[in-house]
Amino acid sequence: MKRGWAWLTASGWFALGRVLLMVLVVLAVASPLAGQKEKKRKDREHKQGDASDTTVRLPDPQAIEVAISEMLGAWQIGDVEMLHKYYADDVTVVSGAWEPPLAGWANYLRAYQSQRERMSAGRLDRNNTYVNVKGNYAWATYQWDFSATVDGSPTSARGHTTLVLEKRGDRWLIVHNHTSLVPEMKPPQPTAQPGAPKPQGPPLPKRVPCACGNYSALASTADCSTG
């Protein structure tokens, strides 16, 4: 009996060659298809990763605009983790009150949480925002209108905020926040006539947490702090 491949006839060799050729064709087609599927999967994961952080893809001025919007949103709803995402650990915060600046995220967080306990239904509207970028540093300034219920009573305030940001890695972080309150203009009181009873003045302003994006010291209309 013939051993090994010796038993194959010419027709057998031909049939075997056809089988091997079909196998090679299948492998040749399957490899590019598998590569295309893998490429599509990686492209899809890359797009999903980009969608999770839009500030990385955008030009710097737009990325800062997005960061400010998301920071203010976190400030309004009390999302501390989201808020910290936009503040550097070594941030300094200057409020509208006559008080020392707050140095560091931990100190700011304590002030913010203390005031938020007194506030509900807060709303902050930002407008007239200007952003300037110089290398890895930028500053943004905007006006704000704030309204909320504080200690059970409605209150409102308006003012200005200037933020200094630094690009660390691929993120813009707030390293300084300076907020000022615009005092409410009151109409002049009428001059009292001799012998007439002294008119009652307006009630003293309620000490409220003004707003603006982060720390807002409990303050009157003369010394408000926000973020």
Structural class: alpha+beta
Average pLDDT, rounded to a whole number, is: 75
How many DSSP E strands?
8
* Dominant shape: elongated
Proper CATH architecture of one domain: Roll
Main beta sheet: 6 strands, mixed
- The termini sit apart by 95 Å
Bin the helical content.
25-40%
Low-confidence stretches: 47-52, 204-227
CATH topology of one domain: Nuclear Transport Factor 2, Chain: A
- What is the strand content? 25-35%
Radius of gyration computed on alpha carbons: 33 Å
CATH class of one domain: Alpha Beta
Number of helices: 5
The string of secondary-structure elements, in order, is HHHHEEHEEEEEE
Q: Largest sheet, order of strands side by side?
A: 2-1-6-5-4-3
Describe, in short, the structure shown.
The chain has 227 residues and is α+β, with helices and mostly antiparallel strands. The chain has a domain at 54-184 and 206-219: Nuclear Transport Factor 2, Chain: A (Roll). It has five helices and eight strands; from the N terminus they run ααααββαββββββ.
